[in-house]
């Protein structure tokens, strides 16, 4: 699903590479935590997958596409394969919950009939069936993040990338988010989640990739947050 | 993106930016009107040229008692010369008709024109030259007549009324060019305003466009609502501009035409043609300004 071959990224004006000769593969249906301190290269890693940045050298494959040879106008196609969730939710404040979820479908040209079918289904999946008509400001942070996940998942992309999705949430709300991501993963979606939240990583016991100074220093199948050896 | 959703987004966009939308519509209306007035003044100048050039004649004055040119050294034109000149004039292919004005007729016309002036008292018929009034098929072919008849015995001078009118039309041409230039500049201003408005709109809606990019909307579908907002404002401005030009035509017909009977005025046809040109200009300018702006501010 995601393959990095010898990927190095050096930002203009910087000497130290943000990512240094990274080799790794994430296969279909995996759930992967990406951990590491600030500045370890996590964000660069995610940005490369979304082709918001291009690598200085090396080859990246995402969802069967070689990003090196992907033309600019094909980038939207790549992004349709990758659902994204952020720490700050990024919901549209003047649209209701339902409209926020429907927005993805609208801009991608789904018919009203499909939208009428998919949106309630998603609301149910994230447990907000009764709040579809609320505005984002009228629901809690945890609920907003569930809406964001619903929006990312409503088009059923093969990959979901979550960048610190629990970063703004209390631990008890975080559990709900993790259950949701786990459920989506069980339906066959590859999930890649960057996080600082050690509690969650330790609890889930999923594959953990740790970055430090642009290098992969750990890649454990059933890892925990801190390195235990 | 479906049309229903697209138009809903456009409507929201226009409403959310209502004051700017209003400013764009008014600016486009004014600038297209100015350009339209330029186009109509062009039509008006052409209408006047048609009208006057159609009326003007070449006058071939024959030698009379007061003629001083060298070709009249042998005195007043002889009947033979007069007959020959008439035959030759009528034989010219550029000539449409030839009308002979005798001294008596010239005198009658002279008295008519200066009837309130003392000058008419002091002139007698034999002082006025007889002439051929020549109407040309194409008034610009005046030179043919001049070269054929100037210097011919019995001909005093060949005079074209066109040379007098031309000075007047040169002045009108300058005014027309000025009007067109003002119109073009104001259209340019409108284009800049559209561009800036869309830049603000793109900034105001960066959340929406950000989400659109995130879920993989093509850059075309991200730009389309903005483009349509620009085009909508331009078209609305054009409607007002057309209304204004029609109003102008109405006023000209009702108030100006009855007072100025010495010329024709531009027709409704020309109002519609100008309006069609303005629509083309409005669409072209708004689409171009939008695309350039959006390419810069809505990069995927």
Concise account of the structure shown:
The complex is a heterodimer of chains A (229) and B (300). With 229 residues, chain A is an alpha/beta fold. Chain A is built from 7 helices and 10 strands.
Describe this structure in words.
Chain A is built from seven helices and ten strands. By secondary structure, chain A is α/β, with parallel strands linked by helices. Chain A has a domain at 2-90 and 159-220: Rossmann fold (3-Layer(aba) Sandwich), CATH 3.40.50. In chain A, strand 7, helix 6 (171-186) and strand 8 form a beta-alpha-beta unit. Chain B has 300 residues and is of the alpha+beta class. Chain B folds into two domains: 3-52 and 166-297, no CATH class; 55-160, Alpha-Beta Plaits. Chain B contains nine helices and four strands; from the N terminus they run H-H-E-H-E-H-E-H-E-H-H-H-H. Chain B has helices spanning 3-16, 18-55, 79-91, 103-113, 142-149, 161-204, 206-214, 219-256, 268-297, and strands at residues 58-62, 95-101, 131-136, 155-160. A four-stranded antiparallel beta sheet of chain B has the order 2-3-1-4. The longest helix of chain B has 44 residues, at 161-204. The model of chain B has no long low-confidence stretch (mean pLDDT 87).
How would you classify the helix and strand content of chain A by structural class? alpha/beta
Residue-averaged pLDDT of chain B, rounded?
A: 87
Cα-atom radius of gyration of chain A: 18 Å
Helix content of chain A: 25-40%
Unreliable sequence segments of chain B: none
* Helix and strand pattern of chain B: HHEHEHEHEHHHH
Which architecture of one domain in chain A per CATH? 3-Layer(aba) Sandwich
Instruction: Note the main sheet of chain B.
Output: 4 strands, antiparallel
How many distinct folded domains of chain B?
2
**Based on helices, strands and strand pairing, what is the structural class of chain B?**
alpha+beta
What is the CATH topology descriptor of one domain in chain A?
Rossmann fold
Number of helices of chain A: 7
